[in-house]
Amino acid sequence: MTLIKTCPVCNHSQLDGNFCAVCGNSFSAIRKRTTAVEVSTASSNDSLEKLKTDAKNFTHFLFQQLKSPSGHFQSTGGSLQNSILSILLFVLLTSAAFYAAFPASLITLSPSFFQVVLYLSIFFILVVAVNLVAVTSTAKLFSIQQSFSELTRKLGGFYAIPIALSAVSLLLTFVHSFTLSAILLSIAIFIAFILIPLITICKILFNEPESIDSFYGILFYIAVTTVASILLAAFIADTAIGEILRLFQF
Question: TM segments (predicted)?
Answer without folding.
Answer: 84-107, 113-135, 156-176, 182-206, 218-237
